[in-house]
Each structure stands twice: as structure tokens, then as C-alpha cells.
Amino acid sequence: MKRCEWCGTDPLYVKYHDEVWGVPEHNDRKLFAKLCLDGAQAGLSWITILRKEKNYYKAFDNFDAKKMAVYDQKKIDELLNNPGIVRNKLKVNAFITNAQAYLEIKKEFGSFDTYIWQFSDFKTIHNKFKSLNEVPAKTSLAEDLSNDLKNRGFKFVGPTIVYAFMQAIGMVNDHLTDCFRYNEVKKLS
User: Fold this and answer.
1) Where are the domains of the chain?
2) Among 85, 91, 84, 83, which residue's Cα sits nearest to residue 35?
3) Local confidence pLDDT in tens for the 189 residues of the chain
């Protein structure tokens, strides 16, 4: 079975590639969590965050934005001492800031899903890349979404991070055309 080569042979990475990456996501909390986790990967590899994903969900109250938005210094200190997550002060504080911005978007748009997916006209963009060398690190659409998120107060949402997020949530299908998941994801969207 042919897969995108980026996932290698690590069983966790392969499972992520085969079951999660590129599948259209419309659950607000999952979208918020994925955006935060993609921001946590800044300067690191995705497998590092993937290995800590369960710890992140536990540490950040299952990504309940209402709880996260009001974290106090005691909770922040607890997070910065948690070996199960990346203990970076800027990233931890960004999760809190992002929770606040996320709640504002939900008020304005009714859902985070509506806000995010409007950027792709509520449909998946199916790219037709044949090799990893063709897959961009960012696109103009990612830059537009990144700028809008930043203007709304989000942190760790540069265009490269946002493009990774768009790939993860199935806004773009960047499975290579010879990957068995390309057509499967296409059918899901």
C-alpha cells in the first residue's frame, strides 16, 4: 500500500496519516485543538507533538476554550511544569490567548467551523501533487487565513503553521496522488 513518504514507518505517524490527516473536520473543539497543536509544533517536528497529544488534551481540559480562556497564573505554572507537554511559556500563553479569540469568533460566526471553512468556500481543495517536492510550505490562502487569525488575536498562526492546519483538517487534500488515501479523502469531502 503506497503512502505519502513523510509519515515514514513510525506506527503512530502511520496511523495519523491513514486515519486523521486530510480528513475534513467540522467539530469546533477539534478544529481549535488542531490549530493549537499545530502552533505547538513551531520549531519542532509534528511527531513530537503527536506523541504528546493525549497529554495536551489532559493538561488543557480537553481543549475546553471556556476553561482555558480564564486560566490563572497557578494553572499556567502547573502547565509550565508539566513534562507531558512542550513547556514553552510563549506557546502555553498562546493557547490561552487563542482560547479567548476562539470564543469571540464563535460569538461572531456562530461556530469556529463556519469561520474556518469560509476561507475555502466550505469545500476541500484537492491538490494533485505527485511528489513531496511539489507540496508548498504555505499558500496565499494560508497567508489570508493566517493574517485574519492574527488580526483576531491568535498567536503561533503564521502561514506555514496555518497551511499545516489546513492540511490536517482536510481543507486541502495534500495526500500525493499515488497515496492510497488521496481518493479516500476525496470521497469524504
Assistant:
1) 5-188
2) 91
3) 899 999 999 999 999 999 999 999 999 999 999 999 999 999 999 999 999 999 999 999 999 999 999 999 999 999 999 999 999 999 999 999 999 999 999 999 999 999 999 999 999 999 999 999 999 999 999 999 999 999 999 999 999 999 999 999 999 999 999 999 999 999 998
In the numeric block, which cell numbers belong to residue 88? 514553552
H helical segments located in 60-172: 65-68, 73-80, 89-109, 112-117, 140-151, 159-168
Q: All 3 cell numbers of residue 144?
A: 489570508
* CATH number for the domain whose boundaries are 5-188: 1.10.340.30
